[in-house]
From TrEMBL:
Residues 403-441 are annotated as: Disordered. Residues 89-157 form the PDZ domain. Pfam families: CtpB_N-like (PF22694), PDZ_2 (PF13180), Peptidase_S41 (PF03572). This is Carboxy-terminal-processing protease. It comes from Candidatus Methylopumilus turicensis.
Amino acid sequence: MRTKFEKISLVVIGAVLGVSLSLNYPAVAEKDAKPQLPLDELRTFAEVYGKIKSDYVETVPDKKLINEAINGMLTGLDPHSSFLDVDGYKDLQAGTQGEFGGLGIEVGMEDGLVKVISPIEDSPAFKAGVKSGDLIMQLDDKLVKGLTLNDAVKLMRGKPNTPIKLTILRKGEVKPLYITLVRAIIKTQSVKYKLPEPGYAYLRVTQFQEHSAADLAKAIKTLREQNKAPLKGLVLDLRNNPGGLITAAVGITSAFVPKDALVVYTEGRTEDAKMRLTANAANYSRGGEAGDFLKDLPADIKTVPMVVLINGGSASASEIVSGALQDHKRAVIMGTQSFGKGSVQTILPMNNGTAIKLTTARYFTPNGRSIQAKGIVPDIIVEDATVNTADQGMNLREADLSNHLSNPKEAEAPAKETPKPPTVKKDDKQSADKAPMEAGTKTDYQFMQAVNLLKGIDILAPSKK
């Protein structure tokens, strides 16, 4: 019998397949009623297939035609459903283990071009200066226009230490940018931590991987030992975190909220797609209570003052964590509005080593909010001081993607006008032309505002010149 843990394992696409929170339910469930096949439409499909086979200018292998038909059927549904060939499925599985090959970018498709959602920290793309919102128009000498996302991904994959030249369109730049990257095995350290000053801890989660929650628990214990006293404040940094395993999201949230508190629930058409995940070891640890890596955390970690940093690159699992902590009034959410991906994709393996990634449900925060196409709105807006004010609203979000799912809560009732959260004005001395800031340091304006808030400093008061 499958364990509950196995039923809720979530997968993120990884290095180059885009922001995707994916729920692995039992692969094939028996349905009470089998859908009736649309015979007229299938006859049309067979007729088109036959015409291509007989009349197309070149001979096309059957496998290619079938795979393209399957992919088109899925990608036409929404931005996150797709067909994974054998290599793509293997890459997806490897990505959840924290090691995979590629360039280190989360991407989607927009207007026929590959659009960068977020570069993965410490990857070749990140180090070369690839930015969120960049449009990749050419890979070496191959134009992206006309390719499927999977085709583009295949071109970006390759043996480690081999180069590839990206031709990029970037807002604000008159001419295309040419960036040469060297492919690498991407080994991501999903949890980073430090004690920037006595009493105040900094935890950064870059992706939600299989061991992220356990690694966060170890980090908390280490920071507590380094401080030699209860912490006065904690900053959890989820900026540019594209998501990952829901079990990791539940585990990380559970470190800070009471046991059995609701973290997230999902709703879909089938019973398998309806779940309520609480802060319980059964939902985040393969060993259940016996393997609960959170059970010996310091008790005060449940009450330490806390700020969570998010931005437009925070998606899926990041939004589950920040939404739950916001609903439980456990942390102040700070930064800018998140990406807004509130749908769940089931990974369904096929018999031939391929798989399909199918949107099967939407997820909701404990208070019943849908994040889909909306995102998490911070309690306090603090803009990134290294980004030009004019460019703040240009970040790619779920609502910008073609065929994105609607927000069901907004469809149920007219949207009520909600008060805008207070905004901390940018420090004019910080220039967008500076080198990228180092997260969790004095060069990180959003982080410093989080620390100031934890210290009780009124960050909303006008600064004295």
